[in-house]
Amino acid sequence: MNFQICNRCVMDTTDPLITFDNNGYCNHCSSAISNIEKYWLRGRNGKVKLEQLFKKIKVEGINNKYDCIIGLSGGIDSSYLAYLASQYGLRMLAVHVDAGFNSKIADNNVKNLCQKLSIDLVVENVDFNEMMDLQRAYFFAGVPNEDIPQDHAFFTVLYSYAEKNKIKYVINGFNLATESILPTAWGHDAYDTRNIKDIHKKFGSKLLKNYKLMSFYNWYIKYRFLKKIIILKPLNYIDYNKEEAIKILEKEVGWQYYGGKHYESRFTKLFQAHILPVKFGYDKRKAHLSSLIVAGQITREEAIKELNKPLYEIQELEEDIIYFINKIDITREEFDEIMNRPPRNHEDFKTNTTILNVLRRIYSCYKKLVSLNTRIRVKV
Predict the structure, then answer these.
(1) Closest Cα partner for 81 from 217, 238, 263?
(2) How far apart are CA 249 and CA 241, in angstroms?
(3) pLDDT tens digit string along 196-225?
C-alpha cells in the first residue's frame, strides 16, 4: 500500500487496516465523529445526565461505605475524574496499582490528590520478580501490546477490590475527547488471559504465583452478569478538555504533568515513544492527536507540527533504556538484538479471539431478538 495520510486527521497507512473514502477521510475519524455525536453529551443535556447518574450511584450506595470505585494511575483522565466525582460528593475507593514502573510524579499525583480530596486510597504492589519476568517475556515475544502485563494487573486488582467491598459501580476515565481513535492493529485485548499465559509459557522463567490473572469466566460472566458490576464513563457527560483539566488539577490538588499520554509509567513511555515506532512503525501520537482533532481541541496543522517534534531526546532515551533493561535483567546488547528482530502478532500465540468473536455474534443476535420482541409488544 502506498503511503497515505487522512485529509481530516493525522492517521495514515502505518495502520495496516486503515481505509479511506472518496474525500480522503479515514475510517478512524469518520467512526470517531459518529461516536462523538451519539455518545458524548455536552452542555446542559450532559450536565443533567451526569447529575442523574451520580444521584443514582449515591442512592444505591447509601448503605455501603463506598458509592463507587476508581482506578487511579496518576494520569490526567483518572485524576480529573476523581476530582469531578469528589465535587459531586461521591464516596470513592481509589485503587492504585504499582507494577514496578511508576514515575515519581505519578506516585505524588495519586497521593496528593487523595489526601486533598479526602479519598480513601488502596495501593497494591504487584510482585516485582513475577511482574518483571512477565514484562521480559512480552519484550522477547515482540508483540505490539507490551503494556498488557501492567494493564491486566490494573484491571484484575481493581475488580477484586470492587468485589471484596461489594461495590457495584466502577467509574472509568475513558473519554471520547482524547481517546476516540485507537487502531486495533496497534494493540491487543489486555483481558486475554490465554494470550498472557502462552507468551509467558514460551518466554518466561518464573511461576506466576502472586500475579493475579483475570479468568475468561470472571471478566465475561462473573463480574458482568453475576456480580452485575457496571462500568461508567462520566467524562463523556461533560465538556471535557485536556488542557483545562490539567490547569484545574494543578491549581486544586498540586497535580504535575509527566510529558505525554500514559507516560505516568516509565515503561509505557519507552514502549510508546521508542519500541512501538522503531520496531513496529506505530506512532501512537497519531491516534491521540487525531482524537483531539475530531474533538475540536486542536487543529490538524497543530497536530502535524507536534508530530514533527522528536519522540525522545537522545540522553533521555538512553536513560530510559538503561532503566528498563536493569528492571527486566537483560543487557544492552540483548535489548538491541531483540529490537532488531522482526515484529510478531499476538495471533502467533494462543488467544481468546475466536471464542470472543463467537460470543459477540451470539450477543448481537440476542440484542436483535430483544429489540424485535419490544417492537412486537409495542404494536400489539
Answers:
(1) 238
(2) 12
(3) 999 999 999 999 999 999 988 898 889 988
